[in-house]
Amino acid sequence: MNPLLSLEKRRKFSNGFYIVLATACFFVALVPLISILYTTILQGASALNYAFFTQVTPPIGGVGGGILNAIEGSVAIVALASLIGIPIGVFGGAYLAEYPGKFAYYVRLLSDVLTGVPSIVTGIFIYELIVATQHRFSALSGGIALGVMMIPIVAISTHESLKLVPSSIREGGLALGLSRSKTLVHILLSAARSGVITGIALAVARVMGETAPLLFTALGSQFMMTSLNDPANSLTLLIFDFGTSPYENAHTLAWGAALILLLIVLGLNMVVRAASRMKIKSTE
Amino acid sequence: MIYEIGNGSLDSIKAFGIGFLLSSDWIPNPPNGGPPILGALPSIYGSIVTTALALLLAVPVSLGVALFQTELSPRKMRTPSLFLIEMLAAVPSVVYGLWGLLVLVPFMRDYVNPQLKSTLGFLPLFTGPTTGLGMLTAGVILAIMIIPYGSSVMREVIAAVPRSQREASIALGATNWETIRTAVLPFARTGIIAALVLAMGRAIGETMAVTMVIGNVARISPSLFLPAETIPSVIANEFTEVAGNDVYLAALFELGLILFAIAFIMNLLGRVIITRLSFKVGRESFA
């Protein structure tokens, strides 16, 4: 047999082999996604009824009940987190983009690193800082914990989208005699608006799904809260508590909450990505 | 942040010193009423084993996914494929935990573990009762969770390989795979290592999903089937049980400090490698 021909065959074979292998990797990675979506929708849908949205969580082991207090807690905590995380994050990111230098470089590096810090560490940090000094678990401390997590995420995305604004727009503002800070607020941020909003929406989706920082701050609760100083439940805490309990009814509620959470988080992600993709197309 | 957590862990550092890292006993409330005896070794061991397992499973798959998305997939499939992997990254970790506990654990118990036991049971890694809760399941779920992360960093560095590299290789008559192996991967090697380090930092800090499937037992054993614990799972599980036990609370703070240090260093290292790299190949290819 011609040795050249066999070499050719071998090359073709190994080429095909590795292409199939890489493609297979991709599909293997999708199996858990499909399985998660399938079970959550299947199990979660059976939990949805009128009581699910109008009643508070039953005691562990109890029957029936709903997740109204968890929805209330999640909304309150995430709203609080946004109040803290969005302004600080946006202005931090604007600072990084507008006043670059050695200091800004290190702040940016630190923000990158902070997004990788385990969220449970943020949880014990806020515990020591607020819960331990106030001697009570509260929705407020939970909101602060998630707000602290949001800051670097929002700052990075704001920085990235401001970097994309052409410098001619900035110069235009300065040439009209606007001060640097006015140019930033009125011209640059509005030019980068869609990127900044995308970043904020993704950050909200991200902290919405966080559990670990809430374990020792908001703590979880069976009741509706009357003020932000009360402990609060959240969708994620409910999934954790009820998912790890041995009761069938609790599992059903956990799946229901998981379905709602997935709808919100994946929904936000999809909307944002679809919108930014359309934006890219229209500017091309 | 470091100050607050360091402050919180002072009691434990005073009480146990360096022995904290080396002792494998974890007895917060000794029956004889003595002072608590706490050692972090089991949780450090659990963290290392589960993270190593996760990387072992996730790195080849992530590389495959990244190569598929950058080099191989048909143009039409590229956007949907990115989208799907992004969705995988967006699923909250507690949902992974719920799925892990109620779907993956029974699956591991009934199919994967018995199979491993009967074929590889002669290794100490695959012995003991198979309840499904344990380090192997935790490793699998961690792997699933870091695949999107690892593959997106790898995709960035692979996409940053200059076109000319690929074109030169193809012009020499190389096949697709030969181009990847000889022209793309060597160029992207440093970045792939950075992706590995970043994925490691993420896996070691992951709390909820691991806590829900690992079984939470302070024990060091070679078998991957047996329940164990990791640094974050100990903190998550025991933080609300410490009432009044100051040294115990401080010990958990010290665990948090260790975790923070490890994750911080990993992320810093990964980020620095990547920024260096982007200076090397030019900023625009990364934007």
Commentary on this structure:
The complex is a heterodimer of chains A (284) and B (287). Chain A starts with a helix and ends with a helix. With 284 residues, chain A is mostly helical. Chain A has helices spanning 3-45, 50-54, 68-98, 102-115, 119-134, 139-163, 167-175, 180-191, 193-208, 235-243, 248-283. The radius of gyration of chain A is 24 Å and the shape is flat. The longest helix of chain A has 43 residues, at 3-45. In chain A, helix 1 packs across helix 11 and helix 7 (167-175) crosses helix 8 (180-191). Helix content of chain A is 76%, strand content 0%. Chain A has a single domain (50-283), classed as MetI-like (MetI-like fold, Orthogonal Bundle). Chain B has one domain (2-286): Orthogonal Bundle (MetI-like fold). Helix content of chain B is 73%, strand content 1%. Chain B is built from eleven helices and two strands. Chain B has helices at residues 2-16, 19-22, 41-72, 75-90, 93-120, 135-159, 163-171, 176-205, 208-213, 231-238, 246-281, and strands at residues 26-27, 37-38. In chain B, helix 3 runs antiparallel to helix 8 (176-205) and helix 7 runs antiparallel to helix 8. Chain B starts with a helix and ends in a 6-residue tail after the last helix. At the A-B interface, helix 1, helix 4, helix 5, helix 10 and helix 11 of A face helix 1, helix 3, helix 4, helix 5 and helix 6 of B.
Query: What's the shape of chain B?
Result: globular
Alpha-carbon distance between the termini of chain A?
Answer: 54 Å
- Output the CATH topology of chain A: MetI-like fold
- Number of DSSP E strands of chain A: 0
CATH homologous superfamily name of chain A?
Answer: MetI-like
State the total count of DSSP E strands of chain B. Answer: 2
Radius of gyration of chain B: 22 Å
First-to-last CA distance of chain B: 31 Å
Task: Give the C-level CATH assignment of chain A.
Answer: Mainly Alpha
Average pLDDT over all residues of chain A:
85
The chain-level mean pLDDT of chain B equals: 80
Q: Name the overall outline of chain A.
A: flat
The helical percent of chain B reads over 70%
What is the helix/strand order of chain A? HHHHHHHHHHH
Major sheet of chain A: none
CATH architecture of chain A: Orthogonal Bundle
